[in-house]
Amino acid sequence: MSTAQLELTHITQAAARASAIAAATPDARRAEWLLAVADILDANSAELVALADEETHLGEARLAGEVARTSGQLRLFARVITEGSYLEAIIDHANPAAVPPTPDLRRVLRPLGPVAVFSASNFPFAFSVAGGDTASALAVGCAVVVKAHSGHPRLSERTAELVAEALRGAGAPEGLFSLVSGRDAGTALVQDPAIKAVGFTGSIPGGRALFDLAVSRPDPIPFYGELGSLNPVVLTQAAIEARGAELASGLAGSFTLGAGQFCTKPGLVFLPEGTDFAALLAAASREKPAGAMLTDRIAEAYPEGLRGHATVPGVDVVVGSVDQRALAEGAAPVVFRTSAATVFEHPDRLLEECFGPTTVLIEYQDREELHRVLALVPGSLTATVDAEPGEDIQAVAEQLAGLAGRVLFGGWPTGVAVNWAQHHGGPWPATTSLFTSVGATAARRFQRPVAYQDAPEALLPEALREENPLRIPRRVDGVLSLP
Amino acid sequence: MSTAQLELTHITQAAARASAIAAATPDARRAEWLLAVADILDANSAELVALADEETHLGEARLAGEVARTSGQLRLFARVITEGSYLEAIIDHANPAAVPPTPDLRRVLRPLGPVAVFSASNFPFAFSVAGGDTASALAVGCAVVVKAHSGHPRLSERTAELVAEALRGAGAPEGLFSLVSGRDAGTALVQDPAIKAVGFTGSIPGGRALFDLAVSRPDPIPFYGELGSLNPVVLTQAAIEARGAELASGLAGSFTLGAGQFCTKPGLVFLPEGTDFAALLAAASREKPAGAMLTDRIAEAYPEGLRGHATVPGVDVVVGSVDQRALAEGAAPVVFRTSAATVFEHPDRLLEECFGPTTVLIEYQDREELHRVLALVPGSLTATVDAEPGEDIQAVAEQLAGLAGRVLFGGWPTGVAVNWAQHHGGPWPATTSLFTSVGATAARRFQRPVAYQDAPEALLPEALREENPLRIPRRVDGVLSLP
Fold this sequence. Notes:
The structure is a homodimer. Chain A is an alpha/beta fold. Chain A has helices at residues 3-23, 27-43, 45-56, 60-83, 132-140, 153-169, 183-191, 204-215, 237-256, 277-286, 296-310, 340-345, 347-350, 367-374, 394-403, and strands at residues 90-92, 105-111, 115-118, 144-147, 177-180, 197-201, 223-226, 232-235, 268-272, 316-319, 334-339, 358-364, 380-386, 404-409, 447-453, 474-476, 479-481. Helix content of chain A is 40%, strand content 17%.
């Protein structure tokens, strides 16, 4: 083994030992660990934001909001594990009268073991070192080994120091949380026998490569990847007629937010042909300043992606310029306009994600053509339809629910609330999974069920003991009951 | 496309259309479909059992019980979808006071789409054409395409006819259920773009090959495979002293049940050295008749597997003979005895599943050695510890919970109750999944979440409408509430 390999093994072995301790720790204690991490992030927000702004150029206001979101996520998971439904406790008492007789059987979810978390470039807090994957894994009692993103190395180090300090102070076991860096460490981590699941947020090629590693292990492990998303938006004729300028202003704000580097950026906008919406959007977008890109690689890929769209016959540029020579000053907004007919001819080129402040207006002739072109859109995190009250959009809504994990009725997809009902996921390539990476149910990714048959009361996990000492919701003999 | 490919595409396209209809069908109607299938199986039990006995030699009593189990499974899923918790409905009302304000968000689980089901040789009803995978997929509104097992082709055809007849009679859509045969059809099915998930019960090599196909698709799909399991049993000194003959009799019954062709067969039995348990087991096993094997391939693999164990130095044969020349009369019970020390030297050969009426007694010197040898046992569906009241077995139980999906405290693993709390799954290679293939929660395998943001009431699925018209349990603003 090389020194790097030895070091990684040391880290993952420590994570395995810490996971065993965390799994045996009461929920109330683990909730305290999460709250300690939340508190230390808030207390050091100013320092972290300054560091993040130097490395990501995302701006202080946005970054301060993201720290609050991140500590809020940790506090949500503290509530989730305290409430206890996340354990999915089910008790079926023995039934000697059944044919054949059935034993006493009690099921609960238990932590999987050490989780590898790959942090994202575009959310240096909320989807990074102490982000949602880390929070949900720690919550259920899994150790976490984070692979730092190369786009914000100093911030990653500093955040990791603070997380480790908070966990130590709260009495969490040594090795429960660690940070590794570098591409080689990342690939080794996914293949490490001690690692039992992976959380990933990033690009389709990067995510697919790691997914392939995870599933080709001698013992395949779950890979929860959030990879890429076009986030289609459908505007109706009536909506544009009633609120055209307002929609244009909202769309301009959404597709340029964070210089268009959001996984929920609206990348495709379907609208009826023959409206003045493009002109309204041009007016609204011109006010938007150029924004610095997160990394050199993303900055270089942006004009390439733009050229990929612009060189398709039948595609017009209605806002900005594909020639982004002034990129040193940041990426400027670019809007394309084309027809559904052109998408039918060049689906691969026009239905490809372009990370940055750009979107494609696609004009449809009628509802029938709209349905046909939506059928080509790959799986997305979100899909939006904006219509006037009373319009019949049931068929559109149904189609959007088939291609995305979150369907919006008006509004813009770039806000992702962190709560119990959130689903941030969707069919491939939006994610590799049937789970969310944001919100309370993200916890289920890092748990596995165990059923205890005819167990003595003293050997049952507390969640399954007869008198319900944790006072959690449980299903008993088929009936869901509240404490 | 070849004719066979065209035919398969025809079937999967019909399944996709039927899935869309089933997804939009009320739970109460789909429950009727399940009950109709259950009723037709029960009504034709005698004919089906006779056909199954000809093809599998499993015996009429066992097969009649299995039909009842299968119709019981269908009825359980009818109750599950009627109760409604399986939809995991969550509502978070808008909160304009939050920073930033949060929208109205409502999450529900929706069916994935057409599911491919690979039936098993060893349970021609309960894990076959109308078995648990089919029942749970139909329950949530997914069409099913079953790949018949080559071990019981006529039974598969006849069962499929009856299922189709029942579904037609109950008003289910055309194409909701179909049957295909042959290895080529099976591999094509896993790669078919219309198929959205796979349920599989079978061998490790066969399951791994199909798993690899499922995850290497351009759009990877979930593969829920139940592959192989050693089902370790730990007996303590005190248990053997107190109940040695009873334990021997129970074990003999369990490892020879169905000629040892159960995925939950106890294949490894850990016991303290220096007891007379082997002699007691020999006495109890000698009474067990030879049993016909399910297929020629399984019959040929059995003596090969036995030789694989017998030729390890330090392994004794304490019951039966490795030389199974009289296999025409069926497979006879064989018991091996060895030491934990021998397992440390030859883990690969002794910790390999041997399908058939055989088990391996492994003698441990002390608890410390027991823990070390258990650490080598691969993931299993079940693990059992049998001790006397008052013995300290907490560490053993905890270790077993780490390696299996169901932990038994006494009794034998070969009975698998079908109820709400059951978990029939476990770490690789027991399964490829964090889900069960038996019991109520199996339904979650074929569902994906969708969140509706700011949706007009009329466009929400009924499960999410404000007044809870389905009267199902839901979580509202973080609080789980019963109807």
